[in-house]
Design goal:
Elements lengths: L1 H24 L2 H5 L13 H5 L7 H12 L11 H4 L42 H4 L12 H10 L8 H9 L5 H8 L6 H13 L7 H6 L9 H10 L19 E2 L5 E2 L4 E2 L5 H4 L8 E2 L21 H9 L19 H12 L17
Antiparallel strand pairs: 1-4, 2-3
Helix pairs in contact: 4-9, 4-10, 7-10, 12-15, 14-15
């Protein structure tokens, strides 16, 4: 019996020593960014993420996390995906418009990339409307396509797919992780996009005060003012006509008059029309999800509204009149205290589960 105990104890010591040796011998970037099991969707988002057609692969998530924060993907090594999609702001930004390489500014505010893993069907949506339409104008039809666009944009990362692949191919430390994630160590633009997209798929926000109140029945999770705001949001304020479902978006495109120039009688940004060429899409932009919305002012596609109160006031006025204005948006007649209540409700949507920070080390 003692011999058996000694044998078991000895084997345990060998296994422990091997594990310790592996941890010591592994490069610092691997110890800093281990493969993690996929976390279940947080409270309030369980049904939403059952609809996801593509599930992330842990080894690709690990690789994608490095790539998302790596400035070597840009032409001058100054900009990463996280430069505009900052984790502390729910993977959005607090600038009215994004800033890319050489200090160049784009036309639009960086939208959040949390909760993009699924696009559930609303009751009255066609199949084409259920498909992902990413960016403010919906020009990308998948997370992988959304990832690829900024790399080649002259005012964002300023590179090309060929230049990016060549830059990463010079980093020998990346090759084992491409092999781990894809079976071979080949580095391609498609694989980079897949890995970053899988990392983005794990940025899931839920278990907010709203979720704990509505689904865990914790009555003290939100204030009485926020509960009034909830009633207004889903009734007289008509917010839920567009901000619907678990992620508070219908994934559709609407013209609210943002960016309309009444003197020149045209939009400063034509939005969805630039993608479709359909007249009714002039000045139309995608309904953003409202999870963690309080973390990334200013608001709208051009960052023209500084605070949540300004946004609700804008809706209360019925938006800005223009020839292509969405008819469902009308003046609401809300009082100042009712607007305060809606803002209080919006703040209860700040959740958890997506938070992260840049890795301390990157493959070399």
């Amino acid at each position: 019996m003692r011999d058996e105990v000694r044998l078991v104890f000895g084997c345990a010591l060998i296994a422990f020593a091997f594990a310790c040796n592996r941890a010591v011998s592994a490069p610092p970037w691997e110890n800093d960014n281990p493969i993690r099991p996929l976390a279940p969707p947080p409270l309030g988002m369980e049904f939403y993420f059952r609809e996801a057609k593509t599930q992330p692969v842990p080894s690709r998530v690990r690789l994608g996390r490095w790539l998302f924060y790596d400035v070597r993907l840009s032409t001058d090594r100054t900009i990463s995906c996280a430069s505009c999609h900052r984790p502390e702001y729910a993977f959005a930004d607090r600038s009215p418009v994004s800033t890319g390489v050489r200090g160049q500014q784009g036309r639009r505010k960086a939208p959040s990339v949390i909760n993009l893993a699924a696009t559930p069907r609303m009751m009255d949506q066609t199949e084409s409307e259920v498909m992902p339409h990413l960016f403010w104008d919906g020009r990308a039809s998948s997370l992988e396509e959304q990832v690829s666009g900024p790399i080649e944009s002259a005012v964002e990362m300023g590179s090309s797919h060929a230049e990016m692949v060549a830059a990463l191919a010079r980093v020998q430390g990346y090759r084992p992780y491409f092999k781990e994630a894809f079976g071979t160590d080949g580095i391609t633009a498609e694989r980079v996009a897949i890995a970053i997209a899988d990392y983005e798929r794990t940025r899931v926000s839920g278990n907010a005060p709203y979720d704990r109140w509505r689904f865990a029945h914790q009555q003290d999770a939100v204030s009485a003012q926020a509960k009034l705001g909830f009633e207004l949001f889903f009734d007289r304020a008509r917010c839920s006509q567009c901000h619907a479902g678990s992620n508070f978006t219908d994934n559709r495109f609407w013209n609210l008059g943002v960016g309309w120039d009444p003197e020149r009688r045209q939009f400063r940004d034509e939005g969805r029309f630039l993608v479709t060429g359909i007249a009714s899409d002039h000045g139309a932009f995608k309904t953003p999800g409202l999870r963690d919305v309080s973390l990334h002012p200013p608001y709208m596609h051009d960052g023209s509204l500084p605070a949540l109160h300004d946004v609700v006031n804008f809706y209360n006025r019925g938006g800005s009149p223009n020839p292509y204005h969405t008819g469902r948006l009308v003046p609401l007649g809300l009082t100042a205290s009712e607007i305060d209540a809606i803002v209080a409700f919006l703040r209860t949507l700040d959740g958890e589960g997506y938070q992260d920070q840049a890795p301390r080390y990157f493959p070399q």
